[in-house]
UniProtKB/TrEMBL annotation:
Keyword entries, A-Z: Acyltransferase, Transferase
Domain Ketosynthase family 3 (KS3): 2-402
Taxonomic lineage: Bacteria, Bacillati, Actinomycetota, Actinomycetes, Kitasatosporales
Protein name, UniProt field: Ketosynthase chain-length factor
ATP-binding in keyword set: no
Amino acid sequence: MTHAAVVTGVGITAPNGLGVEDYWTATCEGRSGIGPVTRFTPDSYPSRLAGEVPGFVAEEHLPSRLIAQTDHMTRLALLAADWALEDAGIKPDELPEFDAGVITASSSGGFEFGERELRNLWSKGGAHVSAYQSFAWFYAVNTGQISIRHGMRGPSGVVVSDQAGGLDALAQARRQIRKGSRVIVSGGVDASICSWGWVAQLAGGRLSTSDDPERAYLPFDTAAAGHVPGEGGAIVVLEDAEAARLRGARVYGELAGYAATFDPAPATGRPPGLRRAIELALDDARLAPDDIDVVFADAAAQPELDRVEADALRAVFGRGGVPVTAPKTMTGRLHSGAAPLDVVAALLAIRDRTIPPTVNVTPDESYELDLVTDRPRSADVHTALVVARGHGGFNSAVVVRRAG
């Protein structure tokens, strides 16, 4: 075994596309999935836009027994996992049950399910609360339901570090591949577009209050004033590179490097940890800054956070030294689902030699970034860096590269 971890299957449920090719076509065409919230009535809230997954009817993809016991978030994750395994050409029931595991990230758990059952408790009493509430709300529920559905009893777990968690989960999956696991299903899917989840997100103070879908989420723009939240994400299949080669699998690329840091407390005067995470991820991949062909940015759309990210990229790559893109301007920030979706976008950029655009943004020149805007850019992409940050100081960076 080489112990290099490669991606052999991907599944996407995103606000601008249900399925890999729908998402990728929309992303390269600059089509956004951000619009008015429809999953609840947001009129009384200061933020009223979201990225909602279109055309998803759970009953068309999942058995009724799962519908009754799962939150909307988990249904999206189950479908993405089904598609990823199918894309990889893997039938879990043909594998030894302890050779395959599931490691996902979560930021919120099943908020919509939990809200409904709490309303039942308050208005009708405990006898009207579903027994499934005991786990449907839980952070680890996506991992559990995917592993149960496919009989995967190998190394499994969940990572909770907000938006950075999606990369942290992929890194943990890579560790298990290096330890000898045959297959790990990994990634992240979140969905908290309900009144309870909305209040929780508003409390963070980072949501845009614009009602214009084209002006609400503008990272690295002088008009940046918060982000638009969204739902969905991506699930991938990771395998050992040699094992994938022996079975003739199609390989999207290698998860070549990873690092994570944590920002110091504000009063210490120490620098943010993002630059260090990027440098350590490059070291882990045994690459130099000049080897990176594109950066998929975290893109917080908060001026002070955008400045930290731009400063880190400039310190590592120089002024305008590498193309930077943020296709999440078409989906919103998907919490734990955002970074895995960016990783898949990076792998597709490598496959198609195309860097997807950052839409609606007029770059603030003071950031000194080579931001890809308006339309995709043709480029011979061999290696990409994906950056993610979580609320409270989490920083993660992953390097993916063309396999072989």
